[in-house]
Amino acid sequence: MARHLTGSAATSVARRLEGALFATEIRERVASDVAAYTQAHGHPPGLAVVVCGRSAPSMVYLERILKACAQVGIERTFVDVEGSTAAQQERELAAAIKRLNADPQVNGIIVQQPLPAGVRLRTVIDAIDPLKDIDGIHPLNAGLLRLGYEGFIPATAHAALEMVHRSGVEVVGANAVVIGRSPVVGMPLASMLVREHATVTVCHSKTRDLAAKVRAADIVVVAAGQPGLVTGHMLKPGAVVVDVGINVVDGKIVGDVDFDSAVGVAAAITPVPGGVGPLTNALLLSHVMRAAQRQEDAAPAAGQDSPR
Ligand code: NAP
């Protein structure tokens, strides 16, 4: 049951919201849906991963996704876009995405980000079929989210929201602070929290007195890419803290929250690594499954004339 987590939690240690645990549960559900789909269609649902210029961190992320697909039985297609200039890469990227759009065995497409310098995200946005855009980057999906209709939401924002839900905090009427206003994390998450009746403050690099904003929040989601940006003394006792940040400091992966000081103040907190990351990965698999189902719903029934 949802509840407000305040007050007495100040002296206790926060509950760790373990992404791996939640991810296992989601993957099991997806694996069972994939098995049913495969039996009904004679082939599994498919995910295509498009890479344009290789950067080490995003390759690690994509390799984890491909491995997770294999675990649940989703078919994988890996497309490595070539080209010696940005213009050539853009042309190849658009052509590859259009081929995948037309491939009925590919249900979801994700494109590695960040793209190489000079290659515009607009190329992907213009090419990708919104029904296969499982990471919610197409403006149609972003617009559907803002208007409160069903579409695809970015998997990371989805994972952060899922963590908020799994903390047990009452979202309705809560003060939520989202630090970061990117189109892939901060803004979609803020939209979803508003939709769930939280009062949301979106903070960014020009925000004045971030500590005061954070101190007023029952829910704090940090997606800034700044290690140690939020510390325990900034938090309201009993707050729920979701740390989306991934940073490498002295060869170690850390989040945006100073975990050691926050854990004694918050009621619940996501660790980094092992928090939002594994959940993002699992939810992306669930988006592939949902894409397959939505495409089936959108397809004309057998024997039905196509529109003229
Ligand atoms: P981004 O596009 O660089 O956006 C960062 C946001 O943080 C911007 O809105 C920026 O403000 C704000 N910001 C930067 N410094 C700040 C400061 N000192 N105070 C307040 N706000 C500040 O990054 P992103 O793609 O949203 O990713 C955010 C973090 O999440 C990164 O660490 C990334 O690696 C991580 N991430 C994790 C996952 C996952 O699965 N766990 C997935 C994707 C990303 P301005 O708008 O003013 O510049």
Characterise the protein shown here:
The chain is of the alpha/beta class and 308 residues long. It is built from ten helices and eleven strands. The chain has helices at residues 19-41, 56-72, 86-102, 121-127, 139-147, 155-167, 186-195, 210-215, 259-262, 276-298; strands at residues 15-16, 46-52, 75-81, 108-111, 175-179, 199-203, 219-222, 240-243, 247-249, 252-254, 268-269. Helix 7 links the parallel strand 5 and strand 6 (199-203). Helix 6 (155-167) packs across helix 7 (186-195). Residues 6-10 have low confidence and may be disordered.
Summarize this structure as a short list of keywords or feature phrases.
single chain; 308 residues; alpha/beta; six-stranded parallel β-sheet; three-stranded parallel β-sheet; 10 helices; binds NADP nicotinamide-adenine-dinucleotide phosphate
Shape: globular
Percent in strands: 5-15%
Strand elements, count? 11
Bound molecules: NADP nicotinamide-adenine-dinucleotide phosphate
What's the SSE pattern?
Answer: EHEHEHEHHHEHEHEEEEHEH
The number of helical runs is: 10
Task: Describe the secondary-structure layout.
Elements: E1 15-16, H1 19-41, E2 46-52, H2 56-72, E3 75-81, H3 86-102, E4 108-111, H4 121-127, H5 139-147, H6 155-167, E5 175-179, H7 186-195, E6 199-203, H8 210-215, E7 219-222, E8 240-243, E9 247-249, E10 252-254, H9 259-262, E11 268-269, H10 276-298
Parallel strand pairs: 1-11, 2-3, 2-4, 5-6, 5-7, 7-8, 8-11
Antiparallel strand pairs: 9-10
Helix pairs in contact: 1-10, 2-10, 3-4, 6-7, 6-10
Bound molecules: NADP nicotinamide-adenine-dinucleotide phosphate.
NADP nicotinamide-adenine-dinucleotide phosphate binds at residues 156, 179-182, 184-186, 203-207, 210, 223-226, 229, 244-247, 276-277, 280.
